[in-house]
Amino acid sequence: MKAKIKLDCQEDTISLGKIIGKLVKAHSLITLSGDLGAGKTTLTKGIGQGLGIKRVINSPTFTILKQYQGRLNLSHFDVYRLEGQDDELGFEEIFDSDDVCVVEWSQFIENILPHERLEIILNHEENGRTCIMHPIGQRYEELVKEIINENNCNGYIE
Ligand SMILES: Nc1ncnc2c1ncn2[C@@H]1O[C@H](COP(=O)(O)OP(=O)(O)O)[C@@H](O)[C@H]1O
Ligand SMILES: [Mg+2]
Q1: Is 40 in the pocket of ligand 1 (CB under 6 A)?
Q2: How far is CA 32 from the centre of its chain?
Q3: At what angle do helices 40-50 and 10-23 cross, to 10 degrees?
Q4: Three-point CA angle 135, 129, 141, nearest 5°
Q5: Residue 112 Cα to ligand 2 middle (Å)
């Protein structure tokens, strides 16, 4: 199963993130891939708002991980700088916790990621972005259906 959503402007990306943040359950993994500037951090800002996080969410490019408290706690990773070196980082403990884990550039730590997740691929288009959601596992399929229902303007499942 796959869902496609058109994101015409930054506000659309934030709104989608908010819906995800409202619906996501504890102990979840969301992986984000897409080029630099595709909107991964913007989507995470929206997820944070949906989780009721008050602090401003900024890119963890230099720190790799930033954590925030909300309805559920958010662990926001940007693992771009870890390419090829994913040994003994201690991330497994965080993936096993109740946190909502959002991982930008997740392909760089594929070896240590749990299999079940909501995979999100953002594509930079001439006008805006497109988002493909690919759920792996029953609970993530349910989540995607709920997201598409809430975001009734622009998404469809194929
Ligand atoms: N749907 C969209 N349409 C147009 N611009 C967008 C959209 N979503 C995000 N942006 C803009 O794209 C830029 C890069 O976003 P960012 O989230 O930092 O990307 P990434 O984390 O993937 O590198 C930001 O200036 C943001 O406002
Ligand atoms: Mg980013």
Answers
A1: yes
A2: 5
A3: 40
A4: 10
A5: 20
Are the beta carbons of 39 and 7 closer than 8 angstroms?
Answer: yes
> Looking at 29-33, 95-99, 122-126, which range is the least confident one?
122-126
Ligand 2 centroid–CA 58 distance in Å is: 8
Mean pLDDT of the chain: 94
Q: How confident is the model at residue 153 (pLDDT cuts 50, 70, 90)?
A: low
The pTM of the full predicted model, rounded to 2 decimals, is 0.96
Using one digit for the tens of pLDDT, what is the confidence trace for 61-105?
888 999 999 999 999 999 999 877 767 788 999 999 999 999 999
Asked if residue 78 has its Cβ within 6 Å of ligand 1, the reply is no
Nearest in space to 18 (alpha carbons), one of 54, 43, 55, 38:
43
Distance, CA of 134 to CA of 22 (rounded, Å):
19
| Gap between the Cα atoms of 85 and 33, Å rounded | 18
Ligand nearest to the CA of 154: 1
| Dist. CA 89 → ligand 1 center (Å) | 28
